[in-house]
Each structure stands twice: as structure tokens, then as C-alpha cells.
Amino acid sequence: MRAGHGSKMGAYVYILRCRDGRYYVGSTRGSLEKRVAEHNAGTYGGYTKSRRPVELVYSRYLDRITDAIATERQLKGWSRAKNEALIEGDFDLLVQLAKNRTELPHPSTGSG
Q1: Is-above-0.70 flag for pTM?
Q2: How many angstroms separate the CA atoms of 47 and 39, rounded?
């Protein structure tokens, strides 16, 4: 898949919510819809296979694959609260969590 300018290859970074409520962070150069379908089909024998079905809850396209990989690594190192703030688009909370480096209770309902 070609995107952006010239022959640069981009990629998606994404977050899936698994059946057990846990999150999986990944990246793909190809079709995001195909990758989610592959996770749900159990194509990959890793983390998501025993936690299906999964639901796409966040994605972002980056023009460079290296940026997508760096973002994936960054998100994998984040706390659950920070990932949930990102998913919900609550950038004020995300900034607060980053500054305080604390786990504030998240104002969402339901179990996570």
C-alpha cells in the first residue's frame, strides 16, 4: 500500500479491545480491516488468539513505517489509563496522566 508522497510506505498503528477487556497494540502496513479480520480469525497464534473476538477501538495512519513502529512501542509502554484516554479522545486527561505519571481513576463506566 502506498501512501503519502513518492514511494514512502506508511502504516497503521491500532488498538484492539479483546473479549476479556484487555488491549492489544499493533501495527500494519496493509489494510487495517484485513488485519482486524485476521486477528478475529485466529490467523496469528499470539496474544489475541485466545481473547477473540477483538474490536478495533483506535487507529492512526502514519506516513512512515518507522513512525508507526515507534508509536506502537510507545503505546505498549503506556498504562491502561493512558491508552483509554487516547481511545476516548480525552487529551486533557492524557496530558494530566503524562505529567503526573499517576493512575487516576478513569471516569468511564463498565469494567475494563
Answers
A1: yes
A2: 9
